[in-house]
Design brief:
Elements (H helix, E strand, L loop, with lengths): L17 E4 L2 E4 L2 E2 H7 L2 H10 L5 H13 L5 H9 L6 H12 L11 H25 L14 H10 L5 H14 L6 H10 L5 H12 L7 H12 L2 H13 L19 H15 L3 H17 L5 H11 L7 H22 L26
Antiparallel strand pairs: 1-2, 2-3
Helix pairs in contact: 1-8, 2-8, 2-16, 3-6, 4-6, 5-6, 5-10, 6-7, 6-16, 7-8, 8-15, 8-16, 9-10, 9-16, 10-16, 11-15, 12-14, 13-14, 13-15
The protein binds acetyl coenzyme *A and oxaloacetate ion (OAA).
Length: 371
């Protein structure tokens, strides 16, 4: 047996959802740079689910479907109220999404059209869950979704209870576009493994949220902000980063399993971080990030990934740190569900092998004689 630790380089499926070839990321054949500049998040969602960009009528239909499905069952609101206020927001999201299945009469149907409807419900309801939990834990009432609002606007509105400004909506919308899909990343793989047993879409997305939470994956955006806060100010950057590198500790937001010459999404987030810093008059996090990048790339050749500058972008949008990874999930649910649909359409159980390296020829002895 040849063991490939971490499945590096293993091609486990074919997919037409997104690709990373020679460092270029495409969704359904559209370059991420093009989409980031010229498409809204909802256009990208339509693209991921349907393989084509929507015309005006199709986009309006999707916007209406998302708006019509944005409310969450009262039982799920009550469940969120029952969680400890200090609960991890990804754990709360994972549990609430799992509970949503119980209130969806179609949750266990396996035909593609039903699952396309479930995908709409999941995309519509995830922002509502994240915003509701964020308010409940502060002792505030959840804010009902705003009819007709797009995902980015609606999320900021439900989070703050105020009309968000156009700059914030535009920035969050672009961040959602950039995070929507990424080939066979760990959370998407988890989703596909789960549904390949012919389990349901809610189970697949629940598995994916669990996988995204870890700091080697989507949880890195929160970890980046924790690091920036820990460093505190520009004059501490060099010593802090050098110490970590000397101890061979990882710097969050750097490196990538697939990109070795840089993540094409990072430059967009870096630009957004700079522009938002200028607008808010607080360039501190951006400037510290640039200095960290100079040191880490200079010494290790490691480049920032999507999570590095998203931390300072979300901070400039005044989003609490522990909502960064849930926001990643709000976007990535479009990719997860596109992959789940693709898995159902051409399914085979995903079941690799392990090389056994444990003890052999063991015998069960009497319990009194065991050490
Ligand atoms: C949305 C996303 O999921 S993007 C990734 C988000 N994750 C992070 O930002 C966490 C920090 N980065 C990492 O841990 C890694 O780069 C990963 C998990 C992204 C990729 O991991 P892998 O492909 O398994 O690379 P691996 O962890 O084996 O690293 C290879 C070498 O680079 C080093 N390295 C990789 N990333 C980093 C880092 N961020 N800081 C310092 N050293 C690093 C490793 O220590 C290792 O060095 P060694 O060969 O001397 O032991
Ligand atoms: O592809 C990966 O391994 C991680 C990543 O960047 C993503 O999921 O966006």
């Amino acid at each position: 047996m040849t063991v490939t630790k971490g499945l590096e380089g293993i091609v486990a499926t074919t997919s037409s959802v997104s690709s990373i070839i020679d460092g270029v990321l495409t969704y359904r054949g559209y370059d991420i740079d093009d989409l980031a500049e010229n498409a809204s998040y909802e256009e990208v969602v339509y693209l991921l689910w349907n393989g084509k960009l929507p015309n005006r009528e199709e986009l309006n239909g999707l916007l209406k479907d998302l708006s019509d499905n944005a409310s969450i069952p009262q039982q799920v609101v009550d469940l969120l109220r029952s969680f400890p206020k200090e609960a991890n927001s990804m754990a709360a999201l994972r549990s609430a999404v799992s509970a949503l299945a119980l209130f969806d009469a179609e949750a266990h149907d396996f035909d593609i059209d039903t699952n396309k409807r479930i995908a709409i419900r999941l995309q519509a309801k995830l922002p509502t869950i994240v915003a509701a939990f964020a308010r409940i834990r502060q002792g505030l009432e959840p804010v009902a979704p705003k009819a007709g609002a797009k995902v980015a606007e609606n999320f900021l509105y439900m989070l703050t209870g105020k009309e968000p400004d156009a700059v914030a909506i535009e920035a969050l919308d672009k961040a959602l576009v950039l995070h929507a899909d990424h080939e066979l990343n760990a959370s998407t793989f988890a989703a596909r493994v789960t549904v390949a047993t012919l389990s349901d879409m809610y189970s697949g997305v629940t598995s994916a949220i669990g996988a995204l939470r870890g700091p080697l994956h989507g949880g890195a955006n929160e970890a980046v902000m924790a690091m920036l806060e820990d460093i505190g100010s520009m004059e501490n950057v060099e010593a802090y980063v050098q110490d970590k590198l000397d101890k061979k500790e990882k710097i969050m937001g750097f490196g990538h399993r697939v990109y070795k010459n840089g993540d094409p999404r990072a430059k967009h987030l870096q630009k957004m971080s700079r522009e938002l810093g200028k607008l808010t008059g607080d360039m501190k996090w951006y400037e510290m990030s640039i200095q960290i990048e100079d040191i880490v790339t200079g010494q290790k050749g490691l480049k920032p990934n999507v999570d590095f500058y998203s931390a300072s972008v979300y901070t400039a949008l005044e989003i609490p740190r522990d909502l960064f990874t849930p926001i990643f999930a709000i976007s990535r649910v479009s990719g997860w569900t596109a992959h789940i649909l693709e898995q159902y359409e051409n399914n085979r159980l995903i079941r690799p092998r392990a090389e056994y390296v444990g003890p052999t020829n063991q015998k069960v002895g009497p319990i009194e004689q065991r050490k």
